[in-house]
Specification:
Blueprint: H1 3-15, E1 22-24, E2 31-34, H2 36-41, H3 47-50, H4 55-59, H5 63-75, E3 78-86, E4 92-100
Antiparallel strand pairs: 1-2, 3-4
Amino acid sequence: MPYGIRKASYALLVENAPFADCALSTRNGTIVQANPALVQMLGYTSEQEVLGLHMATDVYHDSEEREVQRMVPATRLRASIEVDWKRKDGRPFTIRCDAHVV
């Protein structure tokens, strides 16, 4: 299968996934891509509202949890942990986060 078709198929898979997925800027930890499941989970109405949110201050209920999670991939290739995030309205909720560095 040509690379362009694989890339498009992967994009459709992520876009239609029932679980949240996002890409972050390695420079400052802001969201640069988000699928509809993440948008809904965080209580927003569009990807545009989510783009640019800073994970530590806008998404994590406790910004220190973000720092702990950032250290995990450095010690393992993949990590699965539970963390507390917050919705747009500030209400906290717990997620299971599978994180890895690409």
